[in-house]
Amino acid sequence: MEGSIKCNANYVPLTPISFLERSAIVYSDKVSIIYGDVTYTWSQTHQRCIKLASSISQLGVSPNDVVAVLAHNIPATYELQFAVPMSGAVLCTLNTHQDSSMVSLLLNHCDAKILFVDHQLFDIAKGALEILSKSTTKLPILVLILDSDENTSVSSNTLIYENLIAEGKLDFEVRRPKDECDTISISYTSGTTSTPKGVIFSHRGAYLNSLATIIINEMKSTSVYLWCVPMYHCNGWCVPWSIAAQGGTNVCLRNVTDKDIFDNIFKHNVTHMGGAPALLNMLINSPIRKPLSGKVVVMSGGAPPPPDIFSSAEELGFHVTHAYGMTETYGPASICTWKPEWASLPPDAQAKMRVRQGVQHVGMDELDIKDPATMKSVPADAKTIGEVMFRGNNVMNGYLKDLKATQDAFEGGWFRTGDMGVKHTDGYIEVTDRATDVVISGGENISTIQLEGVIFSHPAVFEAAVVGRPDEYWGETPCAFVKLKEGYNATEEEIIQLCQKHLPSFMAPQTVVFGDLPKTSTGKTQKYVLRGKAKAMGSLYKKKTLAD
Amino acid sequence: MEGSIKCNANYVPLTPISFLERSAIVYSDKVSIIYGDVTYTWSQTHQRCIKLASSISQLGVSPNDVVAVLAHNIPATYELQFAVPMSGAVLCTLNTHQDSSMVSLLLNHCDAKILFVDHQLFDIAKGALEILSKSTTKLPILVLILDSDENTSVSSNTLIYENLIAEGKLDFEVRRPKDECDTISISYTSGTTSTPKGVIFSHRGAYLNSLATIIINEMKSTSVYLWCVPMYHCNGWCVPWSIAAQGGTNVCLRNVTDKDIFDNIFKHNVTHMGGAPALLNMLINSPIRKPLSGKVVVMSGGAPPPPDIFSSAEELGFHVTHAYGMTETYGPASICTWKPEWASLPPDAQAKMRVRQGVQHVGMDELDIKDPATMKSVPADAKTIGEVMFRGNNVMNGYLKDLKATQDAFEGGWFRTGDMGVKHTDGYIEVTDRATDVVISGGENISTIQLEGVIFSHPAVFEAAVVGRPDEYWGETPCAFVKLKEGYNATEEEIIQLCQKHLPSFMAPQTVVFGDLPKTSTGKTQKYVLRGKAKAMGSLYKKKTLAD
């Protein structure tokens, strides 16, 4: 429009770096991080990050080089969420549960120039570098992160995290992105369904998701966030940047145990946390559980929470919000936003409302369920199944070095999640199954999530996962893997009968296996492992048996 | 980065239109607007806006054409904040206190294609069109907004607002901006210091400011906002869009009187409102004032609030936040964010902290005080005066059809506010004077704001404004215009002595004039009018008198 100018005064590329710079002024003396006896203020965190960025740059890292981190939820991991982008580099936080071989593969894939490593994971890192050294001479520089009270003897040529900060320059000129769509981080998917892919986040997406997270969770500058969600999991769902934007307080947590969680909640008056339903399950079944002294808002994602978890958690004082998303959507992308009118529903109906994946959050533009072939929206009839698709600034830039996979994911101008679901009449969506997790038995699609919900309602059941067991006659039959609560018992027959009572009988599992469930490090059940087990069992029905 | 794609799936131009579309799903049955006996839900508001956008488009409006609105804070004004951008057009809300001559000038300047007009302002609009018709044949189409219960007889060829909605099409394809930097609105400045300029807002700036506003004010989906800030004033500080983003409730208010404000606060459990200090002053001095039943967060801007207002307002239950900004920054751009440690200060010291203009909000990138000649930052010493400058996505695109003024405003890559101020050691800024309001007496800069603060502390004073009275010897002398509270008395001598007691004696006013203060429609004192009066008084000291 005539009279307009686009210049530095009115156009600044969006980046979460600005949140830290602002909090260093507005909340300078307010506590930014608590970790055991260690505390920092926002002014200190800002200064430490500038100095760290200066040292990262001094180590020869150029803009867009990747800096990797292999560490638990300790203060360094938080600081690196800012310091790496501030150096102009791209952050890649690695899953702490991976072995040396996988770590070496990922370091190689993203061509990491530096690897920051938690002392507890030093051996994995060294192992990874050893493997890497067989195929390349350009190894990442290793930087060791020690806990402050630590006296680990390290070889004199090992770089130490705190030394990098001490030696860094406070007058370092922070390198902000030239274009807000530039890469801020690479997050490898946790590999529930395939080998890890490197998901590319932009400064713009990170900025917008951080603000949306504050709004969804109604976070205030007085909010205290307990770090249960791993920061390597899509940058801790972007919450590190949200807390800086709002000037709240981070409580770091090395060991995500029931004791450490309850202790920290009480000691630091925690107001917010996040975690997979498995984490909530652990807390509500913990022998040391006790009613909280204040409300703790929990954003729960990573898997659909079994209905019972809500009520049990709320009895203790947790206020659970069900979120749904994936690494490709910067973490939570839809929220089952509570509607006041649900309060008058009976508990069962309420629970059914709450396990739905809901509606896109304020930062995500569109959420739809579409027929993946025609790209037409399914009717909002709570029945017609289609693919869950997103569109918005909180969808990744793409998969690192895998243009084909990016193109496939964005085919038709929408991000295709691969998850299947229905749209309810109120516009809320419900995921019925991950595309690869649907059990198709005798031509009927069986929702393993529905089945798992019913099994979970059995009082003895701690966890449940259903997969397809290959079958010569039916194609597949549903096979349930169940972990019982300590000191409880249940039989295969009981579980099957329970399912038959609540669902069409063809949906009931034909097999129930009791035992521990294999998990990814982010708490998701590794269904592909269970699928392998089910496959190994062989067919339940023989073609000829049924032909007889 | 290799593997990235920028496409519809992951890049959507930012626009507040998305807020309404989302709230229509998430908060479909929740009340969006209350106005007397009229209420709408978010689903209804969404549908009404689509139909209105369809009708606007049917009237022949093309993308980027301007649609003007001359109306009080009624539901139509709220709806037009969405419907006009949804039609692809640019919204221009006009100051309701202007006369036909000014309205015709502005309509002509922005080349408005439609003028929506409140029935109470119909005569002004008709007068404006009459004036316009003398110089052009392309007059804007007039659309009359009637209150729902109204039976005004109108000529049959006059378009009626509700008819446009009734006739609009629900399947209209909303026209989102192609580029997020495209213009969403034009807001004419209120003309405190010069003739109105047309400030251009972008969809991007509006989107980001709306989210920042939610965060600053800690607004929830349960928040209820009372419309005291005129929606013609930088689009109601972008709050119409914030409320839609969070799914809160708007309480519209035609008459901004103490009675209507108190009535609505109690009736609808208002949680948030905004307004100039003059509005707060009216409330705390109202004979019908009474303690609120719940806390009401008030963002106060438009002028620095005299210290006493905070405590008096808080005694009633208002929680006042001091914001600072201007049309060019989409309304509030900095906030005097409360620091918990201030709670332990004595009331006087607390008040001093709170009248400062503070720090940039989370949506504004940088705030600085710079020497306007060298563009160097002034030291944070609370003494050195420089010009207040902003940089960020919440700075306007420019002034409509006035590239020269835009270039001047952005000279050096910062938005130059024209206001002078200091930076305190904690990084908070304090505006000492508007560039044109400094009184320079005998070469000394006198802060009229400081002077006004002292005068205001006199128990009989209701309002005070100081300007320079031209003087042959001193250049200028400070001249105070004072309005006393009803039933109170004070003398010129008392006021002068009070100032001499609290400030260096050269700062004390040499003249005190009692009476009403001239105001702009947004509650700002029109200092240029007072300056005219002071000039008419002539010089207090004669050159030769002092040469004797």
Automatic annotation (TrEMBL), chains A, B:
The keyword Ligase applies. Belongs to the ATP-dependent AMP-binding enzyme family. Its EC number is 6.2.1.12. It comes from Medicago truncatula. The keyword Ligase applies. It is an enzyme of class 6 (ligase). Its main location: cytoplasm. GO terms for cellular component: cytosol. GO terms for biological process: fatty acid metabolic process. This is Fatty acyl-CoA synthetase family protein. PROSITE patterns: AMP_BINDING. Residues 21-400 form the AMP-dependent synthetase/ligase domain. The lineage of its organism: Eukaryota, Viridiplantae, Streptophyta, Embryophyta, Tracheophyta. Residues 451-524 form the AMP-binding enzyme C-terminal domain. Keywords: ATP-binding, Fatty acid metabolism, Ligase, Lipid metabolism, Nucleotide-binding. The gene is 11436191.
